[in-house]
Every structure is written in C-alpha cells, then in structure tokens.
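Case study.
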Amino acid sequence: MSSLPPLAGPDSDVSLAPRSARLGERSIVGVLWVFAAISIVTTLSIVFVLLEEGLHFFGQISIVEFFTDTAWRPFGDLDSEGFRIGVLPLVSGTLLVTVIALLVAVPLGLASAAYLSEYASARVRGILKPALEVLAGIPTVVLGYFALTLVTPALRTVFSPESINIFNALSAGLVVGVMIIPTVASLSEDALSAVPDGLRAASYGMGATKSVTIRKVLFPAALSGIVSAIILAMGRAIGETMIVSVAAGNLPTLTVNPGSQIQTMTGYIVQAVGGEASRGSLTYNSIFAVGILLFVMTFTLNIIANRIVRRFREAYE
Amino acid sequence: MSLLSTPAGIARDAVLNLSAPAARVRRERAFQAVLLIATLIALVVMATLLFDVLSDGARRLSTDFFTSYTSRRAEDTGIRTGLTGSLSLMVMVAGMSFPIGVGAGIYLEIFAPSNRFTRFMQINIANLAGVPSVVYGLLSAAMFVYLAGLGRTLITGALALTLLILPVIIVASREAIRAVPPSIFNGALALGATPWQATQKQVLPVAMPGILTGTILALSRAVGETAPILVAGAVFSRRADNAPWEPLEAFGALPVQVYDFIKRPQAEFQIEAAAAGIIVMLTVLLTMNSGAIILRNRYARKR
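After joint prediction, the assembly is written out as follows.
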C-alpha cells in the first residue's frame, strides 16, 4: 500500500484536470452566453432603430422647433397646410395623464403596502396579494374599455357633459392610476417588510403607537424603496398605451384641463402606425422621433429607480 | 376598595394606567380602517369592471361568436381570426422565449463570471423590463418588418412579444435556480459530473416548477398585450385563420380584435362585441394564471 503515490497534491502523478477538452460542455456554455447576450442586442437594436429612423427626421426638422413649437400636426409633408411639428402637446398630454395616475396610485398604493405589511393577518394577505396580482394581470386594452364605457359616462354625470369630453385625460388618468396601484403597493410592501424589526420594537418601546410607528419610523426608513417604486410606476404610466389610445382621444392639445381630449406620445405612435404612414415619409419618421423621447424618458426613470433600489438593499442586508 | 392597598390592587392600578386613552385607541382603529378601505378600493374597481364586462357581453357569447370571422354587421361578427392568431402567437412565443430565457437564466446564475460585463447584462435586463411595450412594437416594425423584409406577418408579432417577455422569463428562471440548494449542484460536481451535467440533471429538474410558473405568467402577459403587435402590424378584419406553421401570413390577435370593436362607433360593437371578446380573453388568461398558481402551490408544499 505504501508504495502507491498520493492521490492528489503537489507530488501526485494524478492530474485533477479534465481528461478531455470538454468541447461539448464549452459549446453549451457558449450557446447559453449567446442567449444571455440577446438582451444586450435587444437594447442596442432599440437604440439603433430609434436613432436611425429618428435621424432622418431630425435631418429635416430642427430639434429646436420639435421641442418648442406648440402644435402637433405632422401629417403630409413640410409644405402641407397646417403642418406643425412641436412635440409639446404630446408631452403635456402624457404628463397630464401621468400626474392624475400618480395622484390615484401613490396614496392608495402606499396605504395598501402599509396595510399588507403591518396589519394584515397571514390569511388576509393570502387573499389580498393574489387579488392585486390578478389586477396587475388584466390586459390594458380591457382597462381602456372600462375607462371609455364606464368611467367616462360616470364622470360626465357627476360633473357635466360640457366639461368632460367623451375622450378625456381624466378618465384615462384615473384608470392608469388603478393599473399602477399593484406596482406601487407590492414594491413598497417589500421595502416596508425589509425594515428590521428592531426599529419597530424601539419605536414601540418609546411609547409610539402603531400608526405613529408606520408614519414616523417605517416610512422614512423605507423611503428609498418607496421612492423607487413610485418612479417605476411613473415609468409604466408614461409608457402605457392602450388605455390612453382608447379613452383619452387623438387630439394633441397643449392643456392642463383634465376634461379635454388630448393625445399622449404612446397614443400618437399607435394612431400614426395605424394610419399606414408609408416608410420614409416624414410622418413615419416622426413616430420614431416620438419613440426616442418616450424611450429616453422611461429608460432614465428605470435607471434611477434601479440605482435607488440597489443602494437601499445595501443598507439592511 | 380595600384591594387598593394590597399588592394585587396596586398591580391592577398600574396596568390600568398603562392602557392607552380611549381617544388614542379610536385614532389607531380609524387609521387601520382607512388603510384597509384604501386597499379594497382597487379590488372594488376590479370587481366592478368584471361585473360590467359580464353584464355587457355574456348575451353575445355563442358558438357563432367563436367560429365567425369579423363582419361589418355587429350581430354576425366573431373572433375566429383573433383566437387562431392569439393561439398561434402563444405557441411561437413560448417556443422562442422559453429556451432563450431559461438558457440566459442558467448562464447568469451558474456559469457567468462575476465581472463588469455580467453586471452590465444584469442591469440591462432589469432596465429592459421597464421599457414600454409599444417601443418593442417600434423595434419590431423597423427591424423585422422592414429591415429583415418579413413584412407585417405572424412571425414579426411573435418576435415583438418574445423580446418583450424575455426579461421576465430570465428573471423568473434566475430566481427559481437560485432557490435550489447549492449542495445539490456541489454534490453532483463532487461525484464527477461536469458543471453542465450537474445543471441539466440535478439543478434544472428541481427548479423547473418555478421556471414554468414564471414562464406561464409571462406568456399570459404576452397574450393580453395589444400595443406591440398593433405597431408590429397586426390586422383587424382578416377573414382567414392563423396557424403557427404559417409564420409568413398576415395575422390578427384577440386583444387587437377587442381594440377594433371598442374603436367602432356602434354600441353593438363598442359595448357588446367588445365585452364578449374581453370575456373570452380574460377566461384564457385566468385559466393560464390559475394553472401557474396551482403549479406554484404544489411546488411550495413539496419543499
């Protein structure tokens, strides 16, 4: 027995390295890498496509005019009558809907998060959380139907048919708000649950009640998570397409009146594509110019939100 | 009140003094009630929506509604094109997004070195998940419809939806793989398996229920998406069937058909036919989601 060399170690004759080059194994890992890299190719393609088509547009239209003109009538070509190419009405329409949506979703979403995280029993949570998930899974075209056929008529009864157009920003904004409640609620709940129990115990020990603890201790401690939840929800509201194209109308209007018909950036994209604008025309290229703006706005919001989330994770783990 | 002088009486008194004033208790209860009501508002809205759709559309449901093509007359119109289109899209999207998404998840969770490029990939996937779906439509329109010359066909719609839900499937796969105890992977390695053998034979079978749940949920999202396929070229009133083995045909889809009904001015279309289409769509989605949830619960009980 003692004549055998040691099985492994610096003096061993036995090599622990694989006997073959394992080409099959390597090629499989290579394929998996390609699959993972597709996501980067996707991002690059989005940027490429938007820039390529958008550059045609900004070759003909000055970027200053695009951002300062106050009317959006991009149909026909430069010489057409009434042709105006200012994106402000679309941006204002998007922001109007987004602000209304946040006014709905932030209070309701935060209240849900606080209730689910601090009050609800396991059984109640087991009912409410899946219900919110179902709400998050309802297709937005269905929510658009809801806004147009139920919310708008209700608004016209409560206010007056003169002050609320059949297509209006208010109805669309309210329903977009309902749509993003699950986003705000579930991410904020995660943030609240991540606050260490020591903070709760310390607060109770100081004589604070539960509501005071939630408002004065837990919300500040979870603030970064809550802020990033709201930012992500805002990105979803800006990018929401079907609710606004069904219920908000197709009339680009520079207004803050929630009762009037408007058009959002996403709404314009759907309308213009449906209009069969021929490829290479100014109208077709304007779709991509609006797309650039939409992509930049939502991508920036996402990056900010993800940054905040990562920083916040480091704080407690 | 002779008890007052005994130790028990003093203790009782101390307890009484520690209990909160009635006004404070009322405020606490009111706060909790407000939070509960706010939570329920969203669910009441959803219930209203479902009730409204059912009451508007239930009468319109009949076998003819499933088997007829779109018609100019509301009473004859059906959703056959949308149904076959959505089913074909689902098959194609599942076929493309499942292997790619799971493969990417495996790479990032098991094989990826921890370097800047990997981190960049991860951040990029997180950010892609937040890109508005209509932008995927623009990408598909410019990239596949025109540059690749595929035209406004079933495959361009399927590609748009695949790219849209890939980040979701990747994230779900990674979470499912991460939940597998590392001892399983390491044990297989110790017995001489290569990393890929350990992954394929040991880790993946354990992670599969979680991966499938995430994939089904992502697919159900794809089925309900309207904006990307609308921009990628779905058509409204096609009087033909779609099939996954005919990827280069024009295509329709259920949500696009519903959108078309909503956009028409007549109430028979806008209210009734649209609601009936929505009922069909929600039934499909609900079936898929409950399948995913059953899968998840069975998986959770086993572990």
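Observations recorded in class. The CA atoms of residues 145 and 151 of chain B lie 4 Å apart. Chain B touches chain A through 86 residues (CB under 8 Å). We will return to this complex in the next lecture.
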